[in-house]
Design a protein that fits this description.
Elements (H helix, E strand, L loop, with lengths): L5 E7 L5 H12 L4 E4 L7 E8 L6 H4 L4 E9 L1 E3 L8 E4 L7 H9 L3 E5 L8 E2 L2 E2 H6 L9 E16 L2 E10 L5 H11 L4 E11 L2 E2 L6 H6 L4 E2 H8 L2 E3 L2 H8 L4 E2 L8 E4 L5 E8 L2 E7 L3
Parallel strand pairs: 3-12, 15-17
Antiparallel strand pairs: 1-3, 1-14, 2-3, 4-11, 4-12, 5-6, 7-10, 8-9, 10-11, 12-13, 16-19, 17-18, 18-19
Pfam family, one: TruB_N
Function: Responsible for synthesis of pseudouridine from uracil-55 in the psi GC loop of transfer RNAs.
InterPro entries: PsdUridine_synth_cat_dom_sf (IPR020103), PsdUridine_synth_N (IPR002501), PUA-like_sf (IPR015947), PUA_sf (IPR036974), tRNA_psdUridine_synth_fam2_C (IPR015225), tRNA_psdUridine_synth_TruB (IPR014780), TruB_C (IPR032819)
Length: 291
């Protein structure tokens, strides 16, 4: 019996890389055809969307959806990685900062902003990952990139001596580094900062209450069927039998004005057939799941 195609919403544990989770899911799902959408750093926990079998072809599209995080930023201390896994690089007293000043500074990092990724990141520089260059002691110059921060809300401010811990909730676009927000908030306040805790609570429509720990998945490997997964994220288009035959062979459909981005195409019996994208007067296939 071939493995079921679909998504697994994993609650990633601290200390595991996203690749570690994929390796574990390969054993649990009984297939090597497993991938993930949207990397989480080892320190981070929370929602990691994993694709099994044909659902791996959805992952590139799912990675572009909005993400939500809860995190803690320590003001007054900087590190080499902009998070708690790095080496300390400096301290500046931050105990004088008022709650209102911290909240006001966070507002400046909302909307469409230009963000410089952390030195230790997976971005490629001259064909090599930035983190590899950084670990070799090489100073990496990364260019600022446009990201969108829909919300950067201060939930609580806690003081311990000359450092200040700020609990935050962040809603943002794909490609946003919460570590960079921590670093930049600290710089804006003149004291430096780094991320000490991070938990992803949502990736698009997939939320923490749907996620399962690896222990739970070992007991029962819950896989969300592809049709349900696509219907939850993308606009839906139901087609006739004739159109279904066309789609199954990679053919194009007439555009219906369903908007930008992927559209899930379903047959008369509810079977997921493909993802298409409307360009001009045509809906062109992005991925076909039947043949």
């Amino acid at each position: 019996m071939s493995p079921v195609s679909g998504l697994v919403i994993v609650d990633k544990p601290a200390g595991w890389t996203s690749h570690d989770v994929v390796a574990r899911m390969r054993r649990l799902a009984g297939t090597r055809r497993v991938g993930h959408a949207g990397t989480l750093d080892p320190m981070a926990t929370g929602v990691l969307v994993v694709g099994v079998e044909k659902a791996t072809r959805l992952l590139g599209h799912l990675a572009l959806t909005t993400k939500v995080y809860d995190g803690t930023i320590r003001l007054g201390e900087t590190t080499s990685t902009d998070d708690a896994e790095g080496e300390p690089t400096g301290t500046t007293p931050a105990g004088h900062l008022e709650d209102a000043a911290v909240a006001e500074a966070a507002k400046a990092f909302t909307g469409e902003i230009m963000q410089v990724p952390p030195q230790v990141s997976a971005i490629k520089v001259n064909g090599q990952r930035a983190y590899k260059k950084a670990r070799q002691g090489e100073e990496v110059e990364l260019k600022a990139r446009p990201v969108t921060v829909h919300g950067f809300d201060v939930l609580a401010v806690r003081r311990a001596g000359e450092t200040v811990d700020v609990d935050v909730s962040v809603t943002c676009s794909s490609g946003t580094y919460i570590r960079s927000l921590a670093r930049d908030l600290g710089e804006a306040l003149g004291v430096g900062g780094h991320l000490t805790a991070l938990r992803r609570t949502a990736v698009g429509p997939y939320r923490l209450d749907q996620a399962r720990t690896l222990e739970q998945l070992a007991a029962e490997c819950e896989i969300l069927p592809m049709a349900e997964a696509v219907a939850a994220v993308f606009p839906r288009r139901d087609v006739t039998e004739e159109e279904a035959r066309l789609v199954a062979h990679g053919g194009r459909l007439r555009a219906l004005g369903l908007g930008e981005g992927p559209i899930g195409v379903f047959g008369p019996d509810g079977t997921l057939l493909s993802l298409v994208e409307e360009k001009g007067s045509q809906a062109r296939p992005l991925a076909v799941f039947v043949s």
